[in-house]
């Protein structure tokens, strides 16, 4: 056995003995997400399904020719088609999954229908809440407590250490995407996902019918989790020099989304104003300070689907996927795909994340793929840091 291979085996053995020391690993007793054998991890984001009662609910903003036969089932068919074609490693439902107000009196039944394509696919999936989900017969808390019981979901009501921060909302959690089998980074999270409950409507006087924001308690949890993951990534064995990239998913866009108005500043389109909170809670500033998160992915504004970069962070809309929620005649419903690709090291194994790309998949006749773009690139020489140099393995004289 080569010296490097022996070193790798010994390190993996030691990692297995010490996993219990990490509170991050303690969060998970279920299926762990990891990059595939080709060094890729693909996420399908589905936003604003606004699911109602299935075939009994008509569509909004479709052509007169489509209207007589269009219903929630068109949303189901679009998801089935997209899941089958993209074959993602994870599906993220980013809020307004069901249309509660005046639409359904059985939110659990509606959620079963809305999430059915993901459940039937057998692919891991997660969900967060938007501002409309709780407007039926379930609160935000009971909604999340029901979602986590559904098959194949990795959703969480809140992190296991939420009590430390008295965290606001329901549906704040972190997912870690670990290295592929055979990689020295098999037990390290190479891509970190943060899912947040952005709330529904503000309860402050003078802000009637305005949208909620990411609270200080949620930001404190994010910062603590981010710093711990950085420590894990940089510690022995196979310590890395940088931080692993992160992605954030939340329903209501942060106020900084409103800064993009020119076509030259974005990939995609803006067709309505950004409906963000009336108060800027500083969450975007926290992301910039940490320097880890490369993309924030939101829904809420159905006919915006652009990505724009600000201070090293990409702010991206998914575009509306649901036919029962508002849309625009002649503008196809859509979903966003994000794909991370690992670098190949000089040792022939998969290393850290090299690039993060995104595109959108449309529910048109051709199931079109549009607006492929590079969100982030490591842009460095592909050389893994195993915590030693080849020279250090030679006998000393």
From TrEMBL:
Any GO MF annotation of the entry: hydrolase activity, acting on ester bonds
Gene Ontology cellular-component annotations: cytoplasm
Protein keywords: Membrane, Transmembrane, Transmembrane helix
Transmembrane spans: 6-28
Residue ranges of every copy of the Calcineurin-like phosphoesterase domain listed in the record: 41-303
UniProt KW Hydrolase keyword: no
InterPro entries cross-referenced by the UniProt entry: Calcineurin-like_PHP, Metallo-depent_PP-like, PAP14/16/28/29
Protein name listed in UniProt: Calcineurin-like phosphoesterase domain-containing protein
Species this protein is from: Arabis alpina (Alpine rock-cress)
């Amino acid at each position: 056995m080569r010296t490097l291979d022996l070193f790798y085996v010994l390190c993996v053995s030691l990692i297995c003995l010490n996993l219990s020391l990490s509170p991050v690993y303690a969060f998970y007793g279920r299926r762990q997400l990891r990059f595939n054998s080709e060094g890729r991890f693909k996420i399908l984001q589905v936003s604003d399904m606004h699911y109602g009662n299935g075939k009994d609910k008509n569509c909004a903003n479709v052509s007169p020719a489509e209207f007589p036969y269009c219903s929630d089932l068109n949303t189901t068919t679009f998801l089935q088609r997209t899941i089958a074609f993209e074959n993602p490693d994870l599906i993220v439902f980013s809020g307004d999954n069901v249309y509660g107000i005046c639409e359904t009196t059985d939110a659990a039944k509606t959620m079963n229908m809305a999430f059915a394509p993901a459940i039937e696919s057998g692919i891991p999936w997660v969900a967060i809440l938007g501002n409309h989900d709780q407007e039926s017969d379930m609160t935000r808390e009971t909604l999340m407590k029901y979602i986590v019981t559904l098959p194949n979901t990795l959703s969480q009501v809140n992190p296991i250490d939420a009590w430390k921060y008295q965290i606001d909302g329901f549906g704040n959690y972190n997912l870690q995407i670990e290295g592929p089998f055979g990689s020295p980074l098999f037990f390290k999270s190479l891509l970190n996902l943060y899912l947040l409950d952005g709330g529904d409507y503000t309860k402050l006087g003078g802000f009637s019918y305005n949208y909620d924001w990411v609270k200080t308690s949620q930001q404190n949890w994010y910062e603590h989790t981010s710093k711990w993951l950085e420590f894990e990534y940089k510690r022995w064995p196979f310590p890395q020099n940088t931080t692993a990239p992160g992605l954030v998913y939340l329903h209501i866009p942060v106020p900084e989304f409103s800064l993009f108005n020119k076509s030259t500043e974005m990939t995609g389109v803006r067709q309505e104003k950004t409906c963000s909170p009336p108060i800027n809670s500083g969450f975007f500033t926290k992301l910039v300070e940490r320097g880890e998160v490369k993309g924030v992915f939101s829904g809420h504004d159905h006919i915006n689907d652009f990505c724009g970069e600000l201070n090293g962070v990409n702010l991206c809309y998914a575009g509306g996927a649901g036919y029962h929620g508002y849309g625009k005649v002649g503008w196809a419903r859509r979903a966003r795909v994000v794909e991370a690709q690992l670098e190949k090291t000089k040792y022939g194994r998969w290393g850290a994340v090299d690039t993060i790309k995104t595109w959108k998949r449309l529910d048109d006749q051709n199931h079109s793929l549009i607006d492929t773009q590079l969100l982030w690139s490591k842009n460095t020489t592909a050389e893994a840091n195993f915590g030693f140099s080849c020279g250090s393995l030679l006998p000393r004289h």
